[in-house]
Amino acid sequence: MRIVVTSTLVPGTKLGKPIYNEQGKILVNANVPLTEMMINRLHILGISFVYIQDPLTEDIQIEKTISDELRIESTKKIEDTFLKFQNEESHLRWLSLEKSTSQLKGIISSLLKELKENKDMLSLLADVICYDEYIFSHSLNVTMYALSIGINLGFSQKQLDLLGLGALLHDVGKMVVPLSILEKPGRLTDDEYEQIKLHTTAGYEILRTVPNIHSVAAICALQHHERLNGSGYPHGISGKEMHQYSKIIAIADVFDAVTSNRVYRQAMLPHEGLELLYSGSDKLFDSSLIQTFRESLSIYPTGLTVKLNDGRQGVVCRQNRMSSDRPVVRILEENGGSVSIPYELDLYDNLNFVIVECDTTFKHRVAQF
């Protein structure tokens, strides 16, 4: 299998992985030749990248970060929690969250178990899912990214539990923002942006009143849009005033926002999202935390077509846990033409070669079906 950008698909291509919605229902199946109508549906669903079948890479296996069952179950529980909160009388919202705390903590426990058992690099690109309700899937993704940072930092179980709860509930305040603003595909007006910004203080005010939710979770909701140089909101505090968990969630939040499927914009690949974070290193985001995140992340996901500095091209076939940006590449082209027998090049053992470009277009070299 290999990754291609959806906009370059042609009829007759077969998906290597099915497309699911958040409830686990298959929307577009694998192993079925795509029609023009099916390709258009992928565009409408906002799917930026897909895995396709390809004889040269048919043995490459794409591992999921967490199981489909856990993702579907967790997203559903987050949705139930947030909607109950949204539909409750404003003065009783704290009670709604209090009743849901045990199942939220159960989600964190299950995520930690699978994240610790999974020895592969973190890659949510492998979960080709259409996010009908972005806020719920976003909350889950941010939690996974934040927990992976915490695990790499050597956090204790108690610290991971608190970080996970803060990440899971960081956007709960968006439940008081009008849906027309949350789902607006175009540019927000100044007034709409000010309303969006209120979700930080709204989340804080609710969470701090819930007896069995630690106060740190409320701080994470309040501070996850603050930035080290004081340019964030709601209070424009600087890095030294931010809680460490807020700094971690800020990184996870931005990364997931720019790399997730959205109907109105092209998602970034992981290395592009990471470059965006690094562009704000020590100005917006803590550079040491970005580096820790980098170490756990599959920067060049398995199945991605890449070009090396000597002109050779191939597909990432395995990850190197020792170095997240130096995977094993199956070389398919060199000296301007296809190789007769594809071979593997381990970039970890061949330091003279680096990835200089990623290619997600559907080209003639990919076999037609």
Secondary-structure-based class equals: alpha+beta
- The portion of residues forming beta strands comes to 5-15%
Q: Write down the overall mean pLDDT.
A: 88
Strand order of the largest sheet: 9-8-7-6-10
CATH architecture tag of the largest domain: Orthogonal Bundle
Distance between the termini: 14 Å
Q: CATH superfamily assignment of the largest domain?
A: Hypothetical protein af1432
Unreliable stretches: 364-369
- Tell me the Rg in angstroms: 21 Å
Sheet with the most strands, sense and barrel status: 5 strands, antiparallel
Q: Class of the largest domain in CATH?
A: Mainly Alpha
> What is the 3D shape?
globular
**Helicity, as a percent range:** 40-55%
User: How many E-type strands?
Assistant: 10
Number of domains: 2
Description of the structure:
The protein is an alpha+beta fold and about 375 residues long. The protein has two domains: about 1-60 and about 300-360, Molybdopterin biosynthesis moea protein, domain 2; about 70-295, Hypothetical protein af1432 (Orthogonal Bundle). About 40% of the residues lie in helices and about 15% in strands. The chain contains eleven helices and ten strands. The protein has helices at about 35-45, 70-85, 95-115, 135-150, 155-170, 180, 190-205, 215-225, 245-260, 270-280, 285-295, and strands spanning about 1-5, 20, 25-30, 50, 130, 305-310, 315-320, 330-335, 335-345, 355-360. The strands form three sheets. The chain has a five-stranded antiparallel sheet, with no helix packed on it. A hairpin with a 4-residue loop joins β6 (about 305-310) and β7 (about 315-320). α3 crosses α4 (about 135-150) and α5 (about 155-170) packs across α8. The model is unreliable at about 365-369 (pLDDT under 50).
